[in-house]
């Protein structure tokens, strides 16, 4: 077994390599990995904010006399008390493949109604298509943690030892850089009097991290935020970074639908999306279920009321709107990432695109809206004229009524300034 070390990940490589070549039995190795995973779920903020207790199967109070038939850990949801079944697979990351047979017994054992979610943790990223399809089509949702998730976590693996698995600490968080501080101060000042505004920051300048600090400043403990993205992959990345860097505990929800059933875990390019099973939290598009969860009083995390954040794709925004129609409260702040995607024409008599519906406060109730992008999309005069002739409503990012004023702009580090792109649109009747 050989785990590839990259970006300073040699310690977790050494931990898992050492366990693989350890003289203990295969069962002993499995138990050691289960203890590592248990502490990971109690320490990594994505899971520690979700679960308030994680038991080894043998220690679970409700186990009774049942034998181990696939469930290795049981985690309890902090807010609801519901249970998540966890299976841990310690395989060679290079040659190990998760097959349908590897997941069947776990799914059968955890599908009896006791559990409302499942989590599959493994040291390999390789799944065959039958296993992929099986976990993707479950009524009780399945999420998975792979080797890359362990690599990319906030755990300080340098200080971890398999001999004392209960001792696991996080690495230190990031601090705002000077340009990010300016963005934070300028945006919060602008939105103190306006209900909409634009944040223009080039790729690589830290929009996601900056937006977290803006949300904490404007919503904070006990507040409510909606974060919209165009893909599940971006949703996952944002959830990961916000959970890792938040100074206020998060109560997170994912709203999206799966477009990758049976397509495999690996992506061949950054433009491809991922499956919802690779999200750290279960996803939904059920507006009623979301309304029920949002209506509940958040459980404190270490004595602090969390900030509720709904991470949603634009494509699934209707579930959020339905939740509000059923009584879910309005948001203190809506953040639209890749906001240039929210532009475009809506011809009279046709339905709005999911991407432009966020502008409508009657559709999504919120006190403030922040539109973030590296490439603001502005339509030229001829396109605007054609839109008027077609009786179409054109969302263009120079429309102050829709997008608000530009609150802050930061260009690329390799260019003096960020130039707007001018777009032409074909308007069809």
TrEMBL record:
GO function terms (MF aspect)? ATP binding; DNA binding; helicase activity; hydrolase activity
Listed under GO cellular component are:
cytosol
Give the Helicase ATP-binding domain ranges. 188-394
- Residues spanning the signal sequence: none
Q: Does the keyword Cell inner membrane apply?
A: no
Q: Which segments cross the bilayer? A: none
This protein's superkingdom? Answer: Bacteria
Q: Which UniProt keywords apply?
A: ATP-binding, Helicase, Hydrolase, Nucleotide-binding
Q: Which SMART domains match?
A: DEXDc
Q: Which CDD domains does the record cross-reference, listed alphabetically?
A: LlaBIII_nuclease-like
Query: What name does the UniProt record give this protein?
Result: DEAD/DEAH box helicase family protein
This protein's species is Actinomyces oris
């Amino acid at each position: 077994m050989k785990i590839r070390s990259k970006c300073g990940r040699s310690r977790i490589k050494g931990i898992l390599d050492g366990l693989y070549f350890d003289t203990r039995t295969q069962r002993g190795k499995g138990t050691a990995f289960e203890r590592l995973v248990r502490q990971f779920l109690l320490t990594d903020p994505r899971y520690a904010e979700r679960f308030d207790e994680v038991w080894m199967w043998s220690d679970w109070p409700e186990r009774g006399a049942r034998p181990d038939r696939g469930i290795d850990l049981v985690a309890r949801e902090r807010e609801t008390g519901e249970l998540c079944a966890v299976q841990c697979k310690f395989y060679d990351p290079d040659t190990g493949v998760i097959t349908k047979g590897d997941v069947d017994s776990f799914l059968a054992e955890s599908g009896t109604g006791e559990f409302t979610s499942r989590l599959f943790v493994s040291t390999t990223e390789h799944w065959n298509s039958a296993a992929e399809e099986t976990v993707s089509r479950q009524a009780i949702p399945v999420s998975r943690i792979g080797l890359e998730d362990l690599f990319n976590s906030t755990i300080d693996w340098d200080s971890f030892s398999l001999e004392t698995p209960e001792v696991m600490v996080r690495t230190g968080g990031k601090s705002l850089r000077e340009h990010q501080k300016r963005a934070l101060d300028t945006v919060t000042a602008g939105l103190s009097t306006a209900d909409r505004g634009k944040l223009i920051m080039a790729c690589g300048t830290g929009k996601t991290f900056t937006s977290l600090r803006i949300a904490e400043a404007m919503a904070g403990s006990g507040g409510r935020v909606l974060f919209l993205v165009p893909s599940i992959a971006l949703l996952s990345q944002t959830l990961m970074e916000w959970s890792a860097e938040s100074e206020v505990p998060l109560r997170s929800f994912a709203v999206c639908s799966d477009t990758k059933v049976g397509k495999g875990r690996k992506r061949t390019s950054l433009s491809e999306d991922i499956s919802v099973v690779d999200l750290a939290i279960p996803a939904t598009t059920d507006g009623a279920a979301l309304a029920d969860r949002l209506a509940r009083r958040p459980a404190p995390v270490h004595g602090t009321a969390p900030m509720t954040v709904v991470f949603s794709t634009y494509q699934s925004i209707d579930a959020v709107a339905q939740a509000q129609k059923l009584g879910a409260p309005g948001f203190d702040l809506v953040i639209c990432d890749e906001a240039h995607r929210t532009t475009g024409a809506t011809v009279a008599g046709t339905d709005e695109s999911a991407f432009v519906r966020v502008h409508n406060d009657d559709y999504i109730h919120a006190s403030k809206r922040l539109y973030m992008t590296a490439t603001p999309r502005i339509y030229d005069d001829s396109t605007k004229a054609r839109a008027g002739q077609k009786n179409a409503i054109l969302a263009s990012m120079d429309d102050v009524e829709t997008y608000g004023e530009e609150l802050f702009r930061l260009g690329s580090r390799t260019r003096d300034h960020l130039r707007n792109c001018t777009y032409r649109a074909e308007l069809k009747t």
